[in-house]
């Protein structure tokens, strides 16, 4: 009986707050002459802060048309903006900038949803050694990381030199499918110098980041290395979970002036790989068995950073240099 009463009170409280909030919005609109979407666009600078408020406003609307506007096809965004303006009785000739701002926000919102679909598709596609494209990508990974050491055979213990577990890497991609390979190849191909350095440090970690004097001062006397490729696949899993949970919205809405793409995701992976490597050395684990503890601690640190609406994890990769005040 007590449980039922508690639930009844919670339901009543929910509907009371909801009605109160809508009444408050109605009063504010009458006082300011602007709807909530207008107030957000005019009072919040472009980026994650604005886009996330617009997204929450559209999803929380009592209008079905506004609720579904966050999941339209990219080609339908322009028409969707016209529908929103019409529904909200906003004159586009008097408020031309509002349409531009809403379009920028919707491109990011819809783009993020589509990026999840694209990333999920890659994650679900298994590595196929009979697929020539998959094999070429795998061999490219080796050439980028070990340009001066030719691979003697496709099935070879040499793969352990870049952090795979056995003589055939295809078995290591099971958890993240092609997504893990795509990320590793992107890192090795587009951030080659850093990737090669991280690989070298993972094999010979001591003094990798500090001078001998600094190392002794920090008492890092038991540096433990790790398997580069396996950690890359693990960090891919971390990036994937940040994406699917919505945590990466803060970052992507700040760096992508329009729709975030797979390239943005891969650049974020590069950043996470580099940052995890530094974090691993700073944590100075006793042995590789501490990997999960270190990974979880790193994950929490990234999540905390992403709670800041102005956060951009890797601004040097930002596609937002051309971002203007829309």
- Report the total helices: 14
Q: Mean pLDDT, as a whole number? A: 85
Report the helical percentage. 55-70%
Compressed to H and E, one letter per element, the order equals: HHHHHHHHHHHHHH
Secondary structure category: mainly alpha
Overall radius of gyration: 24 Å
What proportion strand? under 5%
How many strands, which pairing sense, and closed or not: the largest β-sheet? none
Protein name: ELMO domain containing 1
GO molecular function, one term: GTPase activator activity
Domain ELMO: 133-306
InterPro entries: ELMO_dom, ELMO_domain-containing
Provide an overview of this structure.
The protein is mainly alpha-helical and 326 residues long. Helices cover 63% and strands 0% of the residues. It is built from 14 helices and no strands. The longest helix has 31 residues. The C terminus is likely disordered. This is ELMO domain containing 1. It holds the Pfam family ELMO_CED12. GO terms for molecular function: GTPase activator activity. InterPro entries: ELMO_dom, ELMO_domain-containing. It comes from Chrysolophus pictus (Golden pheasant).
Task: Please summarize what this structure is.
This is ELMO domain containing 1. The chain is an all-alpha fold and 326 residues long. The protein has helices at residues 2-32, 36-43, 48-59, 64-67, 77-87, 96-124, 132-145, 177-190, 192-203, 212-218, 228-245, 249-255, 262-283, 291-306.
């Amino acid at each position: 009986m007590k449980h039922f009463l508690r639930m009844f009170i919670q339901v009543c409280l929910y509907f009371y707050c909801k009605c109160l909030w809508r009444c408050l919005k109605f009063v504010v609109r009458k006082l300011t002459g602007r709807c909530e979407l207008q107030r957000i666009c005019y009072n919040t600078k472009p980026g994650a802060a604005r886009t996330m408020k617009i997204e929450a406003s559209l999803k929380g609307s009592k209008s079905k048309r506004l609720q579904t506007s966050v999941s339209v096809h990219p080609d339908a965004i322009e028409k969707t903006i016209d529908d929103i303006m019409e529904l909200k009785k906003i004159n586009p000739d008097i408020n031309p900038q509002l349409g531009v701002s809403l379009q920028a926000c919707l491109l990011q919102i819809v783009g993020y949803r589509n990026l999840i679909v694209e990333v999920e598709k890659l994650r679900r596609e298994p590595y196929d050694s009979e697929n020539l494209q998959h094999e070429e990508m795998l061999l490219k990974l080796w050439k980028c990381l070990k340009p001066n050491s030719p691979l003697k055979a496709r099935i070879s213990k040499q793969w352990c030199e870049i952090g795979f577990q056995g003589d055939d890497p295809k078995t290591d991609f099971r958890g993240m499918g092609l997504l893990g390979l795509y990320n590793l190849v992107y890192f090795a191909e587009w951030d080659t110098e850093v990737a090669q350095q991280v690989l070298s440090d993972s094999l010979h970690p001591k003094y990798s980041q500090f001078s001998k004097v600094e190392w002794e001062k920090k008492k890092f006397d038991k540096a433990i290395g790790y398997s580069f490729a396996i950690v890359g696949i693990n960090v891919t899993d971390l990036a994937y979970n940040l994406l699917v949970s919505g945590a990466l919205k803060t970052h992507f809405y700040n760096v992508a002036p329009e729709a975030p793409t797979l390239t943005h995701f891969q650049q974020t992976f590069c950043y996470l790989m580099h940052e995890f490597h530094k974090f691993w050395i700073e944590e100075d684990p006793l042995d590789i068995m501490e990997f999960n503890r270190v990974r979880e601690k790193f994950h929490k640190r990234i999540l905390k950073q992403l709670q800041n609406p102005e956060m951009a994890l890797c601004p040097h990769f930002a596609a937002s240099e051309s971002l203007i005040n829309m």
